[in-house]
Amino acid sequence: MTDTEKQPGSLRAKIVRLIWGALPALMLVGLVFLIIVFFTAISAKKTRLAEEQARALSAGRPAVNVVLLEIQPRPISDRLNLPGAIEPWLDLELLAKIGGEVVEVPVKEGDWLQEGEVIARVDPEDYRIALNAAESAASLALTNLERTRSLFDNGFSPKAELDVMEAQEQATRATLDQARLLLARCNITAPISGVIRRLDAKVGLLLKNGDPIARILQIDKVKGVIGIPESDVSSVARLDRVPLTLQALDNRTVTGRKHFLASSPENVARLYRLELAIDNPDRSILPGMFVKADLVKQRVEEGLTVPIYAILNRNDERFVFIEEQGVAVRRPVEPGITEEWRVQIVSGLAVGDRVIVEGHRAVEEGQELNIVKTITGIGEFAR
Fold first, then answer.
1. Can you name the CATH fold of 81-87+220-299?
2. Quick one: pLDDT at residue 102?
3. What contacts 208, CB < 8 A, 6 or more positions away?
4. Model's pTM, two decimal places?
């Protein structure tokens, strides 16, 4: 037999060996495929049986009385209500800048002061005498300087003597300015407009430099101070104005303008200090009053909302029941922001869906419903 006659037989033998070699792998793939098909069929059958069982069970139950909420777009806000307190805009400790005996205190604690108004007077006699002496010394130094300058101009006095006279005149002028300043400080005045929170100055008290005179609070403008939790700092940083409620003033509401937000927490509670500026021209808002801040972190103008209790949770799945053709249909949902007892539904509902909001805990998938009432707004529950 020639090589040409042997070649087809050799090729057939190779094909047979290849088929027999791949046969185990093909059998394994086929077995896996059959197993997948088998378990898929079993799962589908279980699901079908469960649905049939649920329908049969529902068919055997009487219709459940329910109230429906027809979903319509509504505004909803993510709010943060936090307590706070009122602080004065400025809290100033006034200290004495001179020493001496207090001879007059024309004000009392609780008085309202205008900037520049006298709080206390120190005996000025010693300072007046010092001023007179400084004036005389300055006048004499100026006369000596003018005489020496005239002599220098005519060549009868050296330049060094003129320099000495100029230095003496400058020194006496500085002493005179200091004497005038000290005499003026005998009248201790208010550096700001405010109320006297504490008055230390008393007639007959002998003061020394640095002694306390009074504590003055500026309250025609005040600060609402709120502690912001770490998790809400980024949201609050975007706010410019915040409504504040004052319970001590019959729940009066005022607007605070953001003045300062701390860049680090102030205490172990890790609260960040937020200061809100509040105009207080009638001075009715007093330091120490408690306030409640209504911080709007996020607002959705057209949100789809349901009562928070309408959402059920089973096996880590959150869902609501809606009504379709007179029966209950389970609808998985994804909640969003919450305001009081309303919650936004981010996905799972559409405008016009009718959500079961009363009786929903007594129904099952596919159960017939007896619709008692259909409402279009959550506020209709109160009617």
1. Elongation Factor Tu (Ef-tu); domain 3 (2.40.30)
2. 96
3. 96, 99
4. 0.68
